[in-house]
Amino acid sequence: MSVAILGAGAFGTALACALGDVTLWCRDPAQAEALQSKRENAAKLPGVPLPEGVSITSDLGQVSAETVLLAIPMQQTRPFLKTHGAALRDRQLVACSKGVDLELMIGPVGVIQSVLPDAQAALLTGPSFADDIARGLPTALTLACADRALGMALQEQLSTSHLRLYRNDDVIGAELGGALKNVIAIAAGVTIGAGLGESARAALMARGYAEMQRLALSLGAQPDTLAGLSGLGDLILTCGSEKSRNFRYGAALGRGEAFDSATTVEGAATARAVAKLAKSQGLDMPVTRMVAALVEGLITMPEALAALLARPLTDE
Ligand SMILES: NC(=O)C1=CN([C@@H]2O[C@H](COP(=O)(O)OP(=O)(O)OC[C@H]3O[C@@H](n4cnc5c(N)ncnc54)[C@H](O)[C@@H]3O)[C@@H](O)[C@H]2O)C=CC1
Ligand SMILES: O=C(CO)COP(=O)(O)O
């Protein structure tokens, strides 16, 4: 079965490098030409050559693969599918984004199903920096799919010698693991950027993980899912590395500096969505609430810190 990847950003290009024999679609014809002539995505993955088997196009009509990976940012997924969904109706769609749609309050598989109710949909998520995948470093990800047979087929199709997929049928849990860790990564970045120290970062990660579990369980995730690659695994990666855009964005917030608005920072919109979701579920998610307020510019970093430290003492 053939594979296509829609979205030639950092992650889409990295997956193309790892899988090798795929069609890579980008929306901008000029970008497609540049990728084709240089055989490199110089803007996103400089120094990583595109394998010979990767064919580039900006014409969705040329994308005939049965398995289609959607590697475009979360908040763009619904508009993209509304425009192009008809062309993808009978494919196996694998969402690769991490986040919660600000309007529908659901993750990327939920969005696919809301726009294309008959589509076969799955999720590829977990701890992986595009650069690591593209360079062939060993990586393990979660392939989540409610349909066991389809999940097994996709696991086989998308695993390589160095990219190892673990299957899971808890799509909601896997979606939330990937979405929520970005919010906590922003908090971790704020902590380091503001000079609050590594002990404070560890505390935020652990308390943030407790919040992630609370929301995931309340929305129907399986209790163990967030302890896996999508959730704890991705939390460790993203909260601990300057390579993470969510972490770097948080660090800039913590230092009171501006951050490049063209950079994809999924946790910013997701924090706002999740803060609303938590309120509607009657859940206490103080770290997420503070991140959402910081992102929206409603409070300062010292105010966020004071609010978190003034909370009543409680059981763990
Ligand atoms: N970069 C990474 O290390 C990883 C990224 N991801 C996830 O993958 C998703 C994409 O991230 P990146 O590729 O890193 O972002 P990116 O900013 O590098 O690329 C995004 C791509 O989406 C395209 N795009 C944006 N809006 C579009 C639209 N309306 N229609 C068509 N194409 C559109 C852009 O042209 C660009 O090529 C995010 O949800 C991210 O969380 C997941 C794992 C690792
Ligand atoms: O999701 C990622 C790692 O698993 C990439 O993290 P950033 O989007 O924060 O760069």
From TrEMBL:
Sn-glycerol 3-phosphate binds at residues 98, 126, 128, 181, 234, 244-246. GO terms for cellular component: cytosol. Its main location: cytoplasm. NAD(+) binds at residues 7-12, 130, 245. NADPH binds at residues 11, 27, 98, 130, 245, 266. Residues 3-149 form the Glycerol-3-phosphate dehydrogenase NAD-dependent N-terminal domain. Transmembrane segments: none annotated. It catalyses: sn-glycerol 3-phosphate + NAD(+) = dihydroxyacetone phosphate + NADH + H(+); sn-glycerol 3-phosphate + NADP(+) = dihydroxyacetone phosphate + NADPH + H(+). Its EC number is 1.1.1.94. It comes from the Bacteria. It is found in: Cytoplasm. It is an enzyme of class 1 (oxidoreductase). InterPro entries: 6-PGluconate_DH-like_C_sf, 6PGD_dom2, G3P_DH_NAD-dep, G3P_DH_NAD-dep_C, G3P_DH_NAD-dep_N, NAD(P)-bd_dom_sf. Pathway: Membrane lipid metabolism; glycerophospholipid metabolism. GO terms for molecular function: glycerol-3-phosphate dehydrogenase (NAD+) activity; glycerol-3-phosphate dehydrogenase (NADP+) activity; NAD binding. GO terms for biological process: carbohydrate metabolic process; glycerol-3-phosphate biosynthetic process; glycerol-3-phosphate catabolic process; glycerophospholipid metabolic process; phospholipid biosynthetic process. Keywords: Cytoplasm, Lipid biosynthesis, Lipid metabolism, NAD, NADP, Nucleotide-binding, Oxidoreductase, Phospholipid biosynthesis, Phospholipid metabolism. Substrate binds at residues 98, 245-246. The keyword Oxidoreductase applies. Residues 170-304 form the Glycerol-3-phosphate dehydrogenase NAD-dependent C-terminal domain. Belongs to the NAD-dependent glycerol-3-phosphate dehydrogenase family. PANTHER family: GLYCEROL-3-PHOSPHATE DEHYDROGENASE (PTHR11728), GLYCEROL-3-PHOSPHATE DEHYDROGENASE [NAD(+)] 2, CHLOROPLASTIC (PTHR11728:SF1). Catalyzes the reduction of the glycolytic intermediate dihydroxyacetone phosphate (DHAP) to sn-glycerol 3-phosphate (G3P), the key precursor for phospholipid synthesis. This is Glycerol-3-phosphate dehydrogenase [NAD(P)+].
